[in-house]
Amino acid sequence: MSKYDPRNLADLVLRPIVTEKATLLLEQNKYVFEVILKATKPEIKAAIESLFDVNVTSVNTLRPPRKKRRVGKFVGYKPQYKRAVVTLKTGDSITLFPEV
User: Fold this and answer.
1) Which residues contact 50 (CB under 8 A, 6 or more apart)?
2) Strand blocks (E) in the chain
3) Domain coordinates of the chain in residue numbers?
4) Other C-beta atoms lying within 10 Å of the C-beta of residue 94
5) CA–CA separation, 77 vs 2, rounded Å?
């Protein structure tokens, strides 16, 4: 299935992103995750397929621009991060909110 070590793949995906835009993408069977900066599209695809046991058709990544933040007179930046929009095969789904 993949030429990547499954023990390292779990560390690529940090968390799912749940925003208004991300929840609208759920209707198109697209899921948004925050991933580490050095993750590539094939690695992200292998990680999602191994973690959630689904078939991924495409992966789109984006690195939004850093936002400036200030504390008093000191100016700094929020940390850089990378988003991955993962499109799943029709019929597959990921349960982001499990029923307790």
Assistant:
1) 1, 2, 6, 9, 10
2) 13-16, 30-35, 56-62, 68-71, 74-77, 82-88
3) 6-88
4) 16
5) 37
Distance CA 45, CA 23 (A): 20
Calpha distance 57→87 (Å, rounded): 6
Structure tokens at 29: 């069977």
User: Residue 60 corresponds to which tokens in the numbers above?
Assistant: 């789109």
pLDDT tens digits for 39-52?
A: 999 999 999 999 99
User: Alpha carbon of 61 to those of 2, 17, 43: distances in Å?
Assistant: 20, 13, 12
pTM for the structure as a whole? 0.86
Can you give the pLDDT of all 100 residues of the chain as single tens digits? 457 777 788 899 999 999 999 999 999 999 999 999 999 999 999 999 999 999 999 999 999 999 999 999 999 999 999 999 999 999 888 887 777 7
In CATH, 6-88 is 3.40.50.300:
no
